[in-house]
Amino acid sequence: MNLARLLTESAARRPDHPAVIFGNRQVTYAELDRRTNALAWGLKRRGLGPGDVAVLMMPSSIEWITVYYALAKLGAVVLPVNFLYRTDELRHIFTDSGACAFIGRPDHLTYAGPLVLGSDRFRLALTAGKAGPEGFEALEDIFIDRGPFPVHEAAADDTLAIIYTSGTTGLAKGAMLTHMSLESNAKTVADMRYTEPHDICLGVLPLFHIYGQTSTLNASIYLGLTIRLWEHFDPEEVFGAIETEDSSILIAVPTIFNRLAEMAGKRPPSRSSLRFCVSGGASLPVEVLRRFEEAFRVTIYEGYGLTECSPVCVENPYGRATKPGSIGIPIPGFKARLVDANDLDVPAGEVGELIVQGPGVMKGYLNRPEATAEALKGGWLHTGDLARRDEDGYIYIVDRKKEMIIRGGYNIYPREIEEVLYRHPAVLECAVVGMPHKDLGEEVAAVVLLREGREASAEDLKDWVKERVAPYKYPRVVRIVKELPRTATGKILKRAISF
Fold it and tell me: Rounded to two decimals, what is the model's pTM?
């Protein structure tokens, strides 16, 4: 078993088919396989071997993909890191992971560079390109073209990737994902969505994030599709690709669907090449789903996952009627339950914590046995998300367990209030959070980003919600802002919002 066989098998099956298009560059499956072999030989010659942890820190690119599969072939452990991280974040990840190799890009070494060069742990320091900065070797110089590389035979529980999760509190934890968990998740999501050999997967998600790795990269490589890759999400370019490609697939987060729908509202697309879309990473507001589907004449299949699941575990099944607002049903191989505080199942229609079980679940958090035991209590991964299930078995996320607002003893789910705000014609994006209140414990507060050219006051928005929800639920505090804090995937970062 080795995830890299997804590439070697597709290269044997479709050698001349384009694997990745990146700007004006293109590589076929045969070329990508050959390049990863040559890099694996070079890394081995530099002393890197099975089990060694290698940091991969650069924006999405052909080089990123080459390094990823070369490390997999070698049996090394890939540690994908957000290239925007700063010193303290990087110091924790580098130390906690025990990384001994670093592969980055010269223009993203401001914070990582001093840590790598100042540590005795890093035996290998490489940067993409033909000329590495002082202290770093050029990645291009270590390729050795010796033909096929003997792919490491990994055990089912051998770690392939360590993905650090940005928890709501404390230091980030490294979820250990195995060759088996990553391969099974990629194959499962690929097989449950109907694709054609000529489909283009629009690669708008960052590859250092598990969602991009599985749903864009590994699933597409397994199927032998072409990935049209961007270093970062460019709305104009992606909009143009949707219009000009013959047949395309878009796998993205709600923010991306929202931005593209907003563009389409100003200039309807001349045509849409989209066959289907998948949304994940955060709850997709029903209003955003409706606007996008109408503008691009396509169905969005909303799903759900988390880093600890590699990441997909629930999704609206392809080819069947979707249920707006629902994340769907467990994907093949997964089970899901909704439980109370004692891990007892709650009746259909009632809210409980979503817990899941399946082949994509991590083997644990690196160096965190207590956190692992808590997360995997009873053999089920406890997601921390509150949900309900309808009579057909479809699951609806209500909110994060830790984000639920308790106002004067009443439970308020922020997503319900956000859905109401999204229906206001002036609202582009919003986030509802709890703010401390000396009498009620918590008060409901909202931050709102308005559509360009639209106007609404804080009082207008309060009244809009007040007319549509119970009196205790509407936000007493509304702040209109020019931007919202976001994660690397574009998801709104609620913990960075304060009042």
Answer: 0.89
Closest CA to 275 of 307, 302, 300: 300
Q: Which of 133, 154, 175 is the last residue of a domain?
A: 154
Cα distance between residue 118 and residue 183, in whole Å: 36
Lookup: tokens for 301: 């299949």
Radius of gyration of the chain (CA): 23
CA distances from 294 to 20, 241, 259, 262, 269 (A): 30, 18, 14, 12, 11
| 366 occurs within a structural domain | no
Run of H or E including 442: strand 441-450
Cis link prior to 311 (omega < 30° from 0)? yes
Q: How far apart are CA 292 and CA 56, in angstroms?
A: 34
The answer to whether residue 310 sits within a structural domain is: no
355, 336 Cβ separation under 8 angstroms: yes
Which pair of structure tokens corresponds to residue 179?
A: 């060759």
Within 195-234, where are the H helices? 210-211, 219-223
Domain count, the chain: 2
CATH code, domain with 94: 3.40.50.980
Alpha carbon distance 330, 387 (integer Å): 13
Strand 427-437 relative to strand 441-450: parallel, antiparallel, unpaired? antiparallel
**pLDDT tens by residue, 409-462:** 788 989 999 999 999 999 999 999 999 998 888 999 999 999 999 999 999 999
CATH number of the domain encompassing residue 417: 3.30.300.30
Q: Which residues contact 386 (CB under 8 A, 6 or more apart)?
A: 351, 352, 353, 354, 397, 398, 399, 400, 401, 404, 413
Alpha-carbon gap, residue 465 to 469, rounded angstroms? 6
Measure the CA–CA gap between 459 and 19, rounded to whole angstroms: 52
**In this structure, is residue 460 part of a structural domain?**
yes
* Domain extent for 489: 404-496
Tally helices (H) and strands (E) across the chain: 14, 26
* C-beta neighbour count of 354 within 10 angstroms: 28
Q: Is residue 387 part of a domain?
A: no
Helix (H) or strand (E) holding 412: strand 410-412
What is the CB-side half-sphere exposure of residue 23 using CA atoms within 13 A? Answer: 7
pLDDT single digits (tens) 284-330: 999 999 999 999 999 999 999 999 999 999 999 998 889 999 999 99
